Amino acid sequence: LKYTGQRKGLGSDIAVDRYELRGKNLWNIKNYSPPLLIVATRFQGIFVDPHSRNNQDVMDLPIELRVFYGGNDNLRGFDRQSINNNELGFLTAVSAGLETRLVEVLPYMLEPFFLFDIGQVGEGRFDLSPPLFTTSGLGVRWPSPFGTLRASAARGDILNENSNTDSIPEDWILFLSFGQEF
Fold it and tell me: H/E/C letters for each residue in the chain?
């Protein structure tokens, strides 16, 4: 749970609160030792309350308080921060992710995984609106002696598209990371 806020007055022209809730969990299915199948889930909810309904105050929000989606942290089938409300950001966003990974099945300690993410954003505070964003893809993880290498390919899909989603491409996104886990 994370809270960020500021009040109008000394050093600030606006009053705003940002609430962020994140969670991750990994399960060893059937509790095998070593594990055979790992299922990982994650959830993220971000809510920004600018204490004003004035559109200018919302546009004046510092960039770090606005919500941008897409990328390896939430919707892996979209470019990093490509779900951005025409560069203005959103005030509300919710996402969930699922990953299933096979362990010690392939040679060379390669661990294939399947991923699925779902998310929704909203321009208003505490408000979600269409469209719905989904991601599905495949990847491989290698727990090397010097750190974990991960590679994935995921495709984003937009359900209930509208005029705000015209600039968001539904493409395959390739991602390679070192040291990062789910």
Answer: CEEEEECCECCECCCEEEEEEEEEEEEEHHHCCCCCEEEEEEEEEEEEECCCCCHHHHHCCCHHHCECECCCCCCCCCCCCCECCCCCCECEEEEEEEEEEECCCCHHHCEEEEEEEEEEEECCCCCCEEEEEEEEEEEEEEEECCEEEEEEEEEEEEECCCHHHCCCCCCEEEEEEECCCC
Backbone CA torsion sign across 93, 179, 99, 165: positive
More confident residue, 40 or 14: 40
| Cα–Cα nearest to 66, from 85, 51, 44, 43 | 85
Q: Whole-number mean pLDDT of the chain? A: 91
Residues 141, 105 contacting (CB under 8 angstroms): no
